[in-house]
Every structure is written in C-alpha cells, then in structure tokens.
From TrEMBL:
Annotated TM spans: 14-35
Record bears the keyword ATP-binding: yes
Name of the featured protein: Uncharacterized protein
Protein keywords: ATP-binding, Leucine-rich repeat, Membrane, Nucleotide-binding, Plant defense, Repeat, Transmembrane, Transmembrane helix
Gene Ontology MF annotations: ADP binding; ATP binding
Organism: Rhynchospora pubera
Domain (NB-ARC): residue spans on this chain: 187-349
GO BP of this protein: defense response
Disease resistance N-terminal domain: residues covered: 25-110
InterPro entries for this protein: NB-ARC, P-loop_NTPase, RX-like_CC, Rx_N
Amino acid sequence: MATRTTLSSSIETAIVSATVATTFSFILNVLFPLLREEYSLLSGFKDELEKLESIFTRIESVLHDAMTRQLKDRALQDWLVKLTDVACHAEDVLDKFNFDVTRRNAASSQRCLREVRDFFSGNNQLKFRFVMAHKIKELRGKMDSFSEEVSKFNLGQGGSERLIRDQNERMTHSFVESSDVVGRDKEKKEVVAMLLNNGATSTNLSVIAIHGVGGIGKTTLVQLVYNDTGNVGQLTYNDRASVHAYFDLKMWICVSDDFDLSRILKCLIESATKKKCEVDDLDQLQIKTREVLHRKRFLLVLDDMWNEEPQKWEKLENLLRSGDRGSKVMVTTRSLKVSSIINSSQNLQLSPLG
C-alpha cells in the first residue's frame, strides 16, 4: 500500500510539474512577445506588461529547483500546485488578449475591418484598456506573492553543498528488478524495436531521445530496455536478438546537470572496460574512448541529460562515431530542446501511467 501511495504521489507531482513548466513556457515564449508587439503603444500598458513578464521570468528561473525538491518538501509541493493554478489563470487572461490581437489582424473584408476598428476605437478602446490594465494589475498582485516566497524556500540559492547533495541523490545506475515494474511493456517493446532496427541509415551512430517530466519513469523504462534479454513473454521484436545479445558493448552514464566532457569520457571508459580509469588528460581520454569503441556495435545510455548547448554535445558525438554500424545512444531528458540539439532520429514522449 505504501508503494502504491508513493507511486500515486509521484504521478501527481509529475503532472503538476508538466503543467506548470508547459504553461510558463507558453506564456514567456509565445504570449508575452505577441502582446508586447501589439500593445506597446498603449499608454501605461507596456510598463505593466514588462513588470509582469519580469515576475514570470524570475519564477521560471527557479522552477527546476522547485520541481526537483518538491517530493521532499510538502509545503513546496503545495506552493507549486497553487502556482500552477494561478499560472493557468494568467494564461487564460493573456490568451484572451492575444485573441483580440488575432481578431484585429485577421480582418479580411471591409465589413469585418470596420467592425474590428469600431471595437478598437473610441469608448470601446478606452473600456478595453481599462479592463486590460485591471486584469494585468490583478495578475501582478497574485504573482508577486509567489515571487516573494521564492526566497522563503531558498529556491535557486541552495549553494554548492546542496547542489552536490541533490546531484548525488539523482545519480542512477543500470540495474532494475523487472518484476517490480508494471505498466511499461508497450513502451519497452517500442524502444527495443528502435534499438534493434538499423533502417536504411548508412551512419555508424543514431540517437534516440526519451523525454518527459521528472518522476514519470524515464530512467526505469531505459533500465528495463538496457537489461532486455528477450524473456518478455509474448513481446517479440521481429525475430531479432535481444538488446543483451545485439550489442557488443553496453555503457550507462548518469549525466545530470554537469555536462563535463572529461567526466563523461572517464565514465564511458570505466563502464566499457569495468576498470577504473586513471587518465585525466582530455586528449588521452579521447584516444582511449575511440579505442574502446572501435569496431564495436555499442549502446550508450546518457541518463538525465540537461545540456542544451549544441557545441558541447557535438564534441562528444564526434568521439562516438568510432563504433560499428548499428551503434545507438539513448538519451533521457526532461527538455524538448535537448532532443533537438542531439539530432535524435527517433523520439518517445513518455506519458503518465493511466
């Protein structure tokens, strides 16, 4: 019963995290730019909008910290739930303003144009300005209270000691007891099929991205796939071998926030050779990496990847091309942008268990 309750709590927090992250992203990246452009000339409205945007930006910058810590902090979990409600309300209000913008810009006939011009002129425009200003001020008041509580929870200000502790707690490994996992057979079959299918590609390396909110089960799914031996009842993979038999070499690296190339290469070498790597020099590490992967069909898991800088990824990717055709990199991430910068050939968006 305790396990089921914990799982239910994890799913609830995952849904809240997904909702608030998506809502903030839409407001900051879509609605604010549109409204800024359309209403910049309205007296007083531009300043109010910029102040509200500043509050959203500040809170958005600590969302990752809040979502990471909420499972161990009930008060913070409640704060995120309330923040989600207010953010969704803000999205509705701002989207209404955006609808009015679209209505004005989409006028295609003289009759329609006259109607829209009538709406945005004279008394109607003054009324509209008043309503907008009132709603923006109301939103600012609500969001201000959440912004003030950022300091109360020490969000984004935990210091290096807590950062190291959180990173250690988030470290993962490749083992999972498959009998303890239920409800992911369909996704497992889908990912295994991706790994065992070379397709028509002529390249030595392809990348698969599995993304979803924190706590939804990305790591567990990849652990199931990583340890696949083909003994999965009625699941079949087009008569191909299991993951265990298909790859010459399997490696698991928990990347987390720190995408440090030297650390990643050392972990890769140690995971491949099952020996401690005493090399620290980056040039020697890259030489050793290419030697380890040479003519091997390998599977490399990069779990919990946050890096969104293409240059960092490209440096690692270039070294991974030493393997044989059919080699795969499987990346788990919460970020859609990560999936984009790694040029993943296949993606799986993981949803909560129904």
